[in-house]
Design brief:
Layout lengths: L7 H13 L13 H7 L1 H4 L4 E4 L3 E4 L4 H12 L2 E7 L9 E7 L7 E9 L10 E9 L2 H7 L11 H9 L4 E5 L3 E4 L3 H14 L4 H9 L4
Parallel strand pairs: 3-7
Antiparallel strand pairs: 1-6, 2-8, 3-6, 4-5, 5-7
The structure holds 1-O-phosphono-alpha-D-glucopyranose.
Length: 215
Amino acid sequence: MLEEKGKHDLLKIVRQISDMIYVSYVRQKEALGLGHAVLTARELIGDEPFATLLADDVIDAKVPVLKQMMKVFEEKQCSVIATQIVEGPAISSYGVLKAKPVAGSGGKLFEVLDLVEKPKLADAPSNLAVIGRYILTPTVFETLANTKPGAGGELQLTDGLRGLLRREKIYAYVYEGRRFDAGDKLGFLKATVDFALKRKDLGGEFREYLKGLKL
Ligand code: G1P
């Protein structure tokens, strides 16, 4: 259609994107939880480590967070979870880690000792929240397949990781970057404004527009 309509600039963008990678996908036919979603990809992934990205955690970083985490994976050859400090009652919206700092990592790397999905503030084992970037070993498929539904009646990835912890080490990595919770309406708006301001083609005009608002 773009070709017929002579929209060659747009066509070029579409072609560039589709030439970057091959995309395969499986659908999770019922909303049975994040753990179930990951398990749905088992046949597609097979027996190799893989990355899981939760798209509502939008992170702006100089070095992409997964790239930062791959460095840790390459060194440790164990699963790696992204983490961030979350203070106060907001911690109850996250998976929360019990973890010990890895000596010499400057507080950036932790060995995970336990993890719990969305605990009450009083029960939270620390202020280290799980953020939606994971590099996981395929063993997690076995533990997820043997995990019962948890918080919210859903099969939780966090519970599958708890099972994984009985068999393999897991590390938590304090990533460098700025995160927006785009699963939250306000977070989504903040991300939109922030990213729009950074765009070369729109940023200037958009900034002027914002300045002109009577706030
Ligand atoms: C999911 C995970 C949770 C994690 C969070 C990060 O929760 O279950 O462990 O801390 O993503 O964004 P959700 O936000 O889907 O409720």
